[in-house]
Amino acid sequence: MKNKKKYLLLLGIIVCIGGIIGGYRMLTKETLTKRQQDNVVKRLAKDYYIQSIEFTQFGKDQMTGAYLLNIKINNNDKLETTIPFNDLERLNNSSDSIGLNPIDDFEKIQREHPLEEIDISSIKITYLEE
Fold first, then answer.
1. In which domain of life is the source organism classified (predicted)?
2. Spatial separation of the C-alpha atoms in residues 31 and 74, rounded to whole Å
3. Domain coordinates of the chain in residue numbers?
4. Of 19, 49, 66, 77, whose Cβ has the fewest other Cβ atoms within 10 Å?
């Protein structure tokens, strides 16, 4: 009987520790630096006419492992989308293109020719909190 109580106590302690660790992992919020968000804006402005961009949410999908970035362009609810990234390192470059989906929603703001020089100073950016 004593061994059974010890076993149940040990099992209870393990479950509590697992719950604490699991809860902490769920509360760990992913974030992007301002520089990484500026890189996303540069990459988008290269191919799309953008007057404003609002970063609305960023996190990691625990099921797929992909990072998901939600944005809203030109203060238009129809121009909201989620951009997936498999690797956070991709957010450290400002030159690659990013395609927006669904294509039909974004083709009206797509540039005919990508810009070579990108200046984002005239774009209103609403950043995620760091």
1. Bacteria
2. 23
3. 1-29, 34-126
4. 77
Q: In what order do the strands lie in the sheet with 80-85?
A: 80-85, 67-73, 52-60, 124-126
Share of the chain above pLDDT 90, in %: 64
Distance CA 130, CA 128 (A): 6
Across residues 35-62, what is the average pLDDT? 96
What's the pLDDT score for residue 45?
A: 96
**Is the distance from CB of 43 to CB of 98 less than 8 angstroms?**
yes
Question: How many whole angstroms separate alpha carbon 50 and alpha carbon 43?
Answer: 11
CB of 108 within 8 A of CB of 48?
no
